[in-house]
């Protein structure tokens, strides 16, 4: 989970979406999430099928944002959901035991709840602010460490992470970083992914916490 890439075509300024995603995978992204808020369901479904096949060629896990139904329908590797999605729902039963379930969290309590709900990993943030979620609250390195000590499953940090600030997360105990704009808004997304992968390996290969 060193470099978890989340798609957002709005940053590409008209550049072809799927070819850019493939370049990012070839450059070293280790996990792929389809998150396209502006697509209608039919377009999202078609794109999910295409990216699933693409990720499989690079042997990278592929998850769908929010929609358990689409994840099951296309037999994706899994789904990533928010806290509201796990309340009152047994997503593990819907997905099956072999699929990946990722859950967002921003406190020890929500992280523990996610693990108890069957999550395989947790996305924690926002660590440096984010343009994706306007109401996100920043998480400190100390809070990341507290979450790390409270759960046993992998953790990826998300929120405003880029090559210039990723070093501030050293010693936080996380397993990797989740990135949107630092890759897809870059002039060369593949080069950005390559740099972030190298930095993530260096910083989190031997985690603290």
UniProtKB/TrEMBL annotation:
Keywords: Magnesium, Metal-binding, Thiamine biosynthesis, Transferase. It is an enzyme of class 2 (transferase). It comes from the Bacteria. Gene3D superfamilies: Aldolase class I. Its cofactor is Mg(2+). Pathway: Cofactor biosynthesis; thiamine diphosphate biosynthesis; thiamine phosphate from 4-amino-2-methyl-5-diphosphomethylpyrimidine and 4-methyl-5-(2-phosphoethyl)-thiazole: step 1/1. InterPro entries: Aldolase_TIM, ThiamineP_synth_sf, ThiamineP_synth_TenI, TMP_synthase. Its EC number is 2.5.1.3. GO terms for molecular function: thiamine-phosphate diphosphorylase activity. The keyword Signal does not apply. 4-amino-2-methyl-5-(diphosphooxymethyl)pyrimidine binds at residues 33-37, 65, 104, 133. Mg(2+) binds at residues 66, 85. 2-[(2R,5Z)-2-carboxy-4-methylthiazol-5(2H)-ylidene]ethyl phosphate binds at residues 130-132, 160, 180-181. It catalyses: 2-[(2R,5Z)-2-carboxy-4-methylthiazol-5(2H)-ylidene]ethyl phosphate + 4-amino-2-methyl-5-(diphosphooxymethyl)pyrimidine + 2 H(+) = thiamine phosphate + CO2 + diphosphate; 2-(2-carboxy-4-methylthiazol-5-yl)ethyl phosphate + 4-amino-2-methyl-5-(diphosphooxymethyl)pyrimidine + 2 H(+) = thiamine phosphate + CO2 + diphosphate; 4-methyl-5-(2-phosphooxyethyl)-thiazole + 4-amino-2-methyl-5-(diphosphooxymethyl)pyrimidine + H(+) = thiamine phosphate + diphosphate. PANTHER family: THIAMINE-PHOSPHATE PYROPHOSPHORYLASE (PTHR20857), THIAMINE-PHOSPHATE SYNTHASE (PTHR20857:SF15). Condenses 4-methyl-5-(beta-hydroxyethyl)thiazole monophosphate (THZ-P) and 2-methyl-4-amino-5-hydroxymethyl pyrimidine pyrophosphate (HMP-PP) to form thiamine monophosphate (TMP). Belongs to the thiamine-phosphate synthase family. This is Thiamine-phosphate synthase.
């Amino acid at each position: 989970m060193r470099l978890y890439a989340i798609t957002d075509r709005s940053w590409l300024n008209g550049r072809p979406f799927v070819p850019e995603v493939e370049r990012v995978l070839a450059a070293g992204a280790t996990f792929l999430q389809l998150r396209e808020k502006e697509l209608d369901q039919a377009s999202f479904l078609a794109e999910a099928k295409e990216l699933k096949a693409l990720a499989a060629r690079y042997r990278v896990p592929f998850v769908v944002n929010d929609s358990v139904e689409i994840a099951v329908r296309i037999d994706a590797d899994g789904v990533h959901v928010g806290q509201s999605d796990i309340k009152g729902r047994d997503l593990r039963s819907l997905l099956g035991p072999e699929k990946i379930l990722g859950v967002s969290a921003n406190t020890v309590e929500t992280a523990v709840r996610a693990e108890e709900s069957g999550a395989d990993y947790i996305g924690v943030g926002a660590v440096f602010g984010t343009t994706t979620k306007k109401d996100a609250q920043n998480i400190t390195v100390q809070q990341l460490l507290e979450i790390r000590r409270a759960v046993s499953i992998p953790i990826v940090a998300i929120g405003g992470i880029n090559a210039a600030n990723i070093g501030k997360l050293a010693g936080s105990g996380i397993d990797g970083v989740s990135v949107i704009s630092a890759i897809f808004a870059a002039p060369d997304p593949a080069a950005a992914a390559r740099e972030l992968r190298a930095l993530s390996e260096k910083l989190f290969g031997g985690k603290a916490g």
